[in-house]
Amino acid sequence: MEIKLQNLTKVFQAKDKTETIAVNSLDITIPAGKLIGLLGPSGCGKSTTLYMIAGLLKPTEGKIFFGDEDVTEKAPEDRGIGLVFQNYALYPHMTVRQNIMFPLENLKVPKAEAMVRAQEMADLVGIGELMDRKPKQLSGGQQQRVAIARALVKKPRVLLLDEPLSNLDARLRLQTREEIKRIQRETGITTIFVTHDQEEAMSISDEIVLMEVGFKRQVGIPQDVYDMPENLFSAKFLGTPPINLFEGSIKEGKVTLFGGVIEKTKAKDIESCWIGIRPEGFLVDKEGPLELHIDMVETIGRDTSLVIKDEKNNTRSFRVIVDSSNRILPGDKVKFSVKPSKLFLFDKVTGEKLG
Ligand SMILES: Nc1ncnc2c1ncn2[C@@H]1O[C@H](COP(=O)(O)OP(=O)(O)OP(=O)(O)O)[C@@H](O)[C@H]1O
Ligand SMILES: [Mg+2]
After folding, report:
1. Is the backbone peptide bond immediately before 76 cis, with ω within 30 degrees of 0?
2. Which domain holds residue 283?
């Protein structure tokens, strides 16, 4: 089921009449059967967007379509959605089986059928053996799977997940996110997964929608957004260690950094712009235009991470990742060139990509 958001807007008004535009004219089409990661920093409007899709919040403006059907005015229970929150909100006095069956009771599904469907869903999410336990007898990851089974048992058209992994420890989070991906693939259900964790969104999503202060900043396949950031925000939000930013200039089509010409560009000349270079975009190169002073060296398996704080060029310290076969030591002066595909130019004022 394709989901389409049209000019979707939510304005909250406080008692003193101050307004927060939590979601600002969002236009997004979510393809049927895909898992979309809704990503952005705290307060950017992810949950608000999700709750409008769920029908728990009424949009100030705009429309929501499920396929061809306009569901904007529909009650949550008539939309055919399954919703999972961060804190699983299971009924503590009920067993796992009763928790999963609960939505079917409301729908007046006959008990025998409900039992079969609950078992199927429990098996799907990998907790089929735990049906008679109470929630407090389960681990966090198991509880979250019960919540997912309960959301899926109604056979919803759309699955909405709001930071479903944030209460889990690192290992469980990794495991459960792989599980969610598998469940989504097996069921083919259109899923929106809200997270502020870029790595989580990148690894699980078919596409990500990146938001900032209520606006959509970029939409695309995770690797594409990483490789081709459309603006400064997008470049900064994805990637660990983060992209390095320097102030530079473009003169006669040449990008100059620390006095060395590091690239030729079609972008217009500009006195001052941001030069963004991914940590893996520096290549050790005897002929390279940049000579940098290495401050610290951390070798971790395959990669060596260099911390550079070049006094002569008055840089703040920044990180470069090179292959560990480069035997570089602290105190060395090393020449680098820059990989064109890892270098991005952004306007100082608008943050938009130049060139
Ligand atoms: N009921 C409300 N009344 C007033 N303002 C609200 C309300 N709910 C959310 N907001 C504001 O709207 C903005 C978006 O909030 P939202 O909960 O959608 O953010 P989020 O992206 O989900 O953040 P987080 O990652 O912290 O969960 C924030 O500035 C928030 O303070
Ligand atoms: Mg939220």
Report:
1. no
2. 244-347
Confirm whether 352 is domain-assigned: no
| Pair 116, 249 in one domain | no
Same domain, 211 and 272: no
Rounded to the nearest whole angstrom, what is the distance from the C-alpha of residue 288 to the centroid of ligand 1?
47
Helix (H, G, I), strand (E, B) or coil at 293: strand
Q: Rounded to 10 degrees, what is the CA torsion of 32, 127, 142, 149?
A: 30
Q: What is the pLDDT of residue 57?
A: 97
pTM of the model: 0.91
Question: Are 49 and 113 members of one domain?
Answer: yes
pLDDT at 42 (0 to 100): 95
| 53 occurs within a structural domain | yes
Query: Residue of the nearest CA to atom 14 in ligand 1?
Result: 45
Distance 47 CA to ligand 2 centre (A): 4
Q: Which residues line ligand 1 (CB under 6 A)?
A: 12, 20, 22, 40, 42-48, 196
Nearest-angstrom CA–CA distance, 189 and 29: 15
pLDDT band at 312 (very low <50, low <70, confident <90, very high): low
Name the residue with the closest Cα to ligand 1, atom 13.
22
